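// run 5 | inverse folding | seed 20
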């Protein structure tokens, strides 16, 4: 028997790369293309496989997840529940949460599948980053620790304030991801929902899942699984994550799971008393004594009164559509570098002057980019948080397959006359029906939120009619 000839190093790698990039399957709409390469993006129950895929519309890599049902009767019994869960997940929108893009159901003679597309976190998990940092004999930067904690808590506060609240239930350093720019994103937010909806899904890979749970057992609160869990189990898990981020690793001392004693020792090793008190408040044994994510955002170790610079940056990002492109660059060019931008006067001592030359345009661009990416979230002082908008489940298949892209498309100015217009407000949605003189009618709609400053008509004018270039009101 002849032995196959071994390829040279570069040639072998190239062939392997071509093999992994081979398209195995396409989504019904043709946008998502599944590849051979398997990826690990957090331990999610019921997920049979997670493969790398390509978003052909945006040109970025995504994750193609599959849940397999070997019994079609079980799938049929759960179908409506599955659709409702995924429709709600598609409404979760936060800069520090891994994006859920799309889902569809695939029915075959022998089995049924649920396929869903999620954002691909190419830079790896927080656990991997901490291991690399420790391996290089480095310690955790306190400023970085504060930024990470703030971003994670911002995401948790958002999830817990949804209606109904979303409890993560599997928050570990393996399900938190860090990007190259310092942006933190929580993955596997659907874990708790999957446990309830997919109890009879494929059991393949349960051995690996069991090993992962044993390794991460110390992240789970004492009351986990004992009754109806609430936000407190996520706060306990966050406390362990915050502790691991500070000390880089909690030693298991050769055991399969980290002991309570190891957690106590790690907490006591923190030199900063505020950091120590912060993590201990999250790890209280009684669930009702643990603070909420919103409360923790205002803990003394994290909260700093936001400067005018940060407030202005958020205002600029939120209203960017009103400003011309490269407006920051153009403005900085027109200013006299020696001109005084701000001044503080003191009666008993010399004042302080801030000139335009003290502000670097490059640093300003980087800061604005960080704010846009969610690295510096602006916590509000109200007790409530943004709510995802509920979506009706009676979407047609054509609507389900339609994927919107943030890329603006060229639009033509509307020149037809409106003979009749009707406005309807229902379930936080404002719809405008326009009867045109050429008998081709239009329907415009937008989601609205309660505000004492903005009337529904004003909101519609600003957000829908303007974008459609139809001026009728």
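// decoded
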């Amino acid at each position: 028997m002849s032995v196959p000839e071994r390829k040279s190093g570069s040639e072998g790698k190239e062939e392997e790369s071509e093999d992994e990039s081979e398209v195995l399957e396409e989504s019904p709409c043709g946008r998502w293309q599944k590849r051979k390469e398997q990826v690990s993006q957090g331990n999610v129950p019921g997920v049979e496989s997670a493969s790398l895929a390509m978003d052909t519309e945006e040109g970025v890599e995504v994750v193609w997840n599959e849940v397999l049902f070997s019994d079609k009767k079980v799938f049929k019994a759960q179908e409506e529940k599955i659709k409702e869960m995924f429709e709600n997940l598609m409404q979760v929108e936060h800069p520090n949460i891994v994006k859920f893009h799309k889902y569809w159901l695939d029915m075959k003679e022998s089995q049924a599948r649920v396929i869903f597309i999620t954002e691909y976190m190419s830079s790896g998990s927080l656990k991997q980053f901490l291991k690399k940092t420790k391996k290089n004999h480095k310690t955790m930067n306190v400023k970085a620790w504060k930024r990470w904690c703030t971003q994670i808590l911002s995401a948790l506060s958002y999830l817990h304030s949804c209606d109904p609240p979303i409890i993560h239930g599997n928050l570990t350093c393996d399900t938190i991801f860090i990007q190259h720019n310092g942006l933190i994103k929580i993955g596997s937010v659907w874990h708790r929902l999957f446990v309830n909806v997919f109890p009879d899904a494929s059991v393949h890979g349960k051995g690996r899942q069991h090993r992962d749970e044993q390794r991460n057992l110390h992240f789970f609160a004492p009351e986990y699984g004992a009754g109806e869990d609430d936000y407190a189990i996520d706060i306990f898990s966050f406390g362990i994550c915050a502790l691991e981020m500070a000390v880089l690793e909690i030693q298991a001392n050769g055991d399969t799971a980290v002991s309570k004693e190891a957690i106590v020792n790690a907490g006591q090793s923190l030199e900063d008393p505020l950091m120590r008190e912060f993590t201990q408040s999250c790890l209280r044994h009684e669930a009702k004594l643990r603070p909420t994510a919103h409360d923790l955002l205002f803990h003394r170790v994290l909260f700093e009164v936001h400067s005018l610079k940060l407030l202005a940056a958020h205002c600029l990002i939120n209203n960017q559509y009103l400003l011309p492109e490269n407006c920051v660059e153009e403005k900085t060019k027109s200013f006299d570098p020696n001109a005084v931008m701000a001044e503080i006067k003191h009666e008993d001592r010399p004042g302080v002057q801030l000139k335009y030359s003290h502000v670097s345009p490059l640093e300003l661009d980087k800061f604005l980019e960080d704010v846009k990416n969610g690295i510096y979230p602006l916590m509000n002082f109200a007790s409530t948080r943004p709510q995802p908008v509920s979506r009706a489940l009676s979407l047609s298949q054509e609507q389900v397959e339609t994927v919107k892209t943030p890329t603006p498309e060229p639009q033509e100015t509307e020149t037809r006359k409106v003979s009749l217009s009707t406005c309807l407000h229902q379930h936080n949605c404002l719809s405008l029906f326009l009867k045109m003189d050429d008998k081709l009618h239009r329907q415009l709609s937008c989601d609205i939120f309660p505000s004492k400053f903005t009337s529904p008509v004003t909101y519609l004018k600003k957000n829908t009619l303007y974008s459609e270039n139809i001026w009728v009101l």
